[in-house]
Amino acid sequence: MSTTAKTNHIGRKISRIRELRGMKQETLAEELGISQQGVSQLENSETVEDEKLEQVAKALGVTKEAIENFSDENVVNYFNSFYDNSSPKGNSFNQGWNATFNPLDKVVELYERLVDAEKDKVKYLEELLKNK
Question: What is the mean pLDDT of residues 88-113?
Fold first, then answer.
């Protein structure tokens, strides 16, 4: 049984971060001032020059170190640390299932504003008729 170390394929990491950010290759290409094919080649490269990696990191909104240390496992662990719906009142990530206002109050408020607007309209039209 051989124990081969995982390669640190920077291109794959760039690709994965780009996908997680919801960015297309074309968009990244525009940010970097290169073609979409250039981004494709970059994502297929096992290594990337430091200067280019800095540009890519800036375009992706992350640090160079974030790209170098990226792993899918860390992303899953990061987001799992946010998910906690055990509190019915919610937490900083999950605001709970209960609305903080009564929806019927909002409907009544809307109708009251509509009625007020109609009253103002009637008053305006009556003024116009009096002036004629």
Answer: 68
Tell me the HSE value of 113 on the side-chain side, using a 13 A CA sphere: 6
Closest CA to 67 of 6, 7, 11, 5: 11
CATH H-level superfamily of 10-80: lambda repressor-like DNA-binding domains (1.10.260.40)
| Contact present, 28 and 18 (Cβ < 8 Å) | yes
User: Which pair of structure tokens corresponds to residue 35?
Assistant: 């073609």
CB atoms within 10 A of CB 12: 16
Integer-rounded Cα radius of gyration of the chain: 28
Q: pLDDT tens digits for 58-84? A: 998 888 888 888 887 776 666 555 545
Structure tokens at 24: 């297309």
Q: How confident is the model at residue 89 (pLDDT cuts 50, 70, 90)?
A: low
